[in-house]
Inverse folding.
């Protein structure tokens, strides 16, 4: 349930509610009485708050952590712009209520969006939503089909074509994530040079340029009581890019029932329960909705996309671990991230080295 993920605002993430009230008044956003703020736990980059008034109206506020400089992973204006453009074309995209880039209000930019009541699937599947394997399959299929639907949105209709940097998306991703890993590496994690070299050597050409989410996983989706996806959250990494790369990134989170015990330690989603599709079945289901060009690239290059997804996730985790190690954040959920980054690197290396028959 969404309510299971709501906590009191952590001291290091507190902000001035009176200043938010004043800003909302200035924007003509009606509310009753004094506002209250709670925080959604989880999330390793931007912060998400539930804002409520005395009449029961609720909004979601998204903002970077204190002291974060504007960057692609913390650009609230870009995230709000993507959602505003998508809302008319993708029903699961939340409506943006207002955006503020004046740091004089809260000390950082932020935006408000509609709150979509529903369920967030985290480590386990709630029995009241998915009581059996068939309903679990319904949930899984809805997740995959929703990703395909996003990738089939016409970017020219969204007005977000400016996010497309042109040919070379795959090459830019490999170069960029490699640079970020080297910059964030701490002495306790592998150097991953073999993986970075393999990705650079084996990269396929771009297969398409579509709007991609960048962090597709269950706990970024809102689910109704019928196990259907009704909301898509956390658009901070959305851009125009190759859909196969987006699927590869999503599969980095996918731990299935026959995986090694070491990889199962990393399970964050209930992707190993009866009714869930395996990684290969997910790729097959997704591929069935896509163009022949995408289908061919997935058949010929899936190992590359899978290794890329694992390495990319390792970089994200390692960047957070570097911040935690330096004391830039004290969030206890990050205390084991160094070990997680190392395990992801190890799995990517094992996939590269495994005989083809074992992949």
């Amino acid at each position: 349930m969404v309510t299971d993920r709501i906590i009191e605002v952590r001291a290091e993430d507190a902000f001035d509610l009176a200043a938010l009230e004043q800003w909302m008044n200035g924007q003509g956003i009606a509310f009753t009485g004094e506002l209250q703020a709670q925080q959604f736990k989880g999330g390793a980059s931007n912060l998400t708050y539930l804002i409520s008034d005395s009449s029961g109206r609720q909004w979601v506020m998204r903002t970077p952590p204190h002291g974060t400089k504007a960057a692609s992973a913390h650009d609230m204006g870009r995230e709000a712009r993507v959602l505003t453009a998508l809302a008319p074309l993708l029903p699961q995209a939340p409506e943006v209520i207002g955006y503020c880039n004046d740091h004089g209000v809260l000390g950082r930019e932020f935006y408000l969006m509609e709150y979509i009541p529903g369920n967030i699937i985290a480590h386990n599947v709630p029995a009241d939503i998915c009581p059996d394997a068939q309903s679990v399959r319904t949930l899984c299929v809805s997740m995959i089909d929703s990703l395909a639907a996003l990738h089939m949105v016409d970017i020219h209709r969204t007005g977000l074509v400016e996010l497309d940097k042109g040919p070379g998306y795959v090459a830019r991703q490999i170069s960029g994530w490699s640079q970020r890993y080297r910059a964030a590496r701490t002495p306790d994690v592998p150097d991953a040079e073999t993986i970075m070299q393999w990705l650079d050597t084996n990269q396929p050409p771009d297969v398409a340029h579509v709007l991609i989410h960048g962090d597709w996983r269950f706990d970024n989706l809102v689910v109704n009581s019928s196990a259907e996806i009704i909301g898509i959250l956390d658009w901070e990494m959305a851009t125009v890019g190759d859909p196969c790369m987006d699927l590869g990134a999503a599969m980095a989170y996918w731990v299935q029932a026959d995986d090694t015990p070491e990889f199962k330690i990393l399970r964050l989603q209930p992707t190993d329960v009866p009714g869930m599709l395996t990684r290969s079945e997910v790729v097959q289901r997704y591929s069935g909705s896509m163009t022949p060009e995408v289908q061919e690239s997935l058949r010929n290059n899936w190992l590359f996309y899978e290794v890329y997804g694992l390495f990319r996730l390792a970089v994200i985790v390692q960047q957070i671990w570097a911040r935690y190690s330096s004391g830039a954040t004290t969030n206890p959920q990050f205390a084991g991230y160094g070990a997680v980054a190392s395990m992801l690197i190890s799995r990517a290396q094992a996939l590269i080295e495994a005989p083809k028959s074992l992949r």
Notes: The chain has twelve helices and ten strands. Residues 49 and 101 are 17 Å apart (CA to CA).
